[in-house]
Amino acid sequence: MPLDETLSAILEAVAADAPEMDFDTLTPEEFREINGDYSEGGGEEVDVIENLNLANVDGGEMAIRIYRPKGVDGRSPAIVFFHGGGWVVGNLNSYDGQCRGLANRSGAVLIAVDYRKAPEHPFPTPPEDCYSALCQIAKNSEGLGIDSERIAVAGDSAGANLATVVCQMSRDRNGPEIKHQMLFYGCFDIDPDRWPSHQENIEGPILPGVMMRWFYRHYVGAEKFIGESYAAPIHSKDFSGLPSAQIITGELDILRDEGEAYAKVLKEAGVETYYECIPSLPHAFLVFFEMVPAAREVMDLACKRLADAL
Questions:
Q1: pLDDT above 90 for 278
Q2: Which of 299, 194, 295, 307 is nearest to 252 (CA)?
Q3: Does the domain formed by 5-309 have CATH 3.40.50.1820?
Q4: Strand locations in the chain, DSSP E?
Q5: pLDDT tens track for 106-138
Q6: Which residues are catalytic?
Q7: Residue 168: which of 134, 141, 125, 136 has the closest Cα?
Q8: pLDDT value, residue 40
Q9: Residues 118, 93, 300, 131: is their CA dihedral positive or negative?
Q10: Do residues 211 and 187 lie in contact, with contact meaning Cβ atoms separated by under 8 Å?
Q11: Which of 31, 173, 216, 293 is the most buried (most CB within 10 A)?
C-alpha cells in the first residue's frame, strides 16, 4: 500500500530542508544534531514532569525523566520507557513529545531512561544500563510513587530491542517482575539478509537500509551479529516465562518481518501476545502521532491494551 497521505506530505516538507546524509562519512555527533537530540523537547501538557538521576552500571549518573499524568496517585502503574535511535542517537529531549503522549493515554507514570549510547558505549552497555535502571526503579518504587507490582516496559525501534532484552534479562537473572512489554517497530535481529522486508523497504522512508546498517556497525561492530541474544533477542534459546507483549509493526518498515517473527515465537512459547502490522505506515511513525491520525489511533489503542494489562 502507498504511504499514508498525511505523513507523506509531512515527510516531503521536511525533506525540502533536511541535510544530505552520507553514511560513509556521517559521524554520530552530526546525526545527533540532525536528530534533534539538543532540542528542548515539548508537546502535550502533562501534570508533573521530574528529572532525576540513577546510577549506570559503571557507577556514573544516568538521567531519567518521570511523566505523571493527571489522576495518578502514590501507587500508580508505571512504564519504563527506552527511546529509539539505533542505539546511537536519541535522548530524553528528542523523545519528550512521544513520552508525554504515552503517559497521558496510558494513565500510567512513564519513566524514560537516558541509557548510554554507542559508539562511545557499544553493546553490551546499553542493555545493561537499561536493566540496571529497571532494578533501581523497582527497588525505589515507594519513593518514586509507583506500584512495584505493576511495572511495564516499552520502547520503539532500538528502544523496543532494549525493552525486549530487559525482559529476557529480568527472567534470566530473577530480577523485577515485568507485567507487560509494549514494543513498537522493534529491532529483534541483527541480520538484514534474513528478512524479506529489509529488501522490500530498503529505500523506504525514515529508516532506509543503509541507515540501519550504519546503526548496526556502531552498536555491535558488524552488520550481522546473531551470537548474542541480548543484542539480537530473536536468537534466544528460550522464550517461555516472558511478560505478555504487544508488538506493533509498520507495513513499510524494513523491521516489519522480524517483528512478526518475534511475535510468533512468543506465542509458540505460551506468552500472551498481540501482534498488528499497520498498513501504509513506515518506521518511527509514532513520532508524528500529533499530526497523523493513523499514528495517533495506534498509540491510543496500544496504551489502552497496556492499561488493561496493568
A1: yes
A2: 295
A3: yes
A4: 48-55, 61-68, 76-82, 109-113, 146-156, 180-184, 244-250, 273-278
A5: 999 999 999 999 999 999 999 999 999 999 999
A6: 157, 253, 283
A7: 134
A8: 87
A9: positive
A10: no
A11: 216
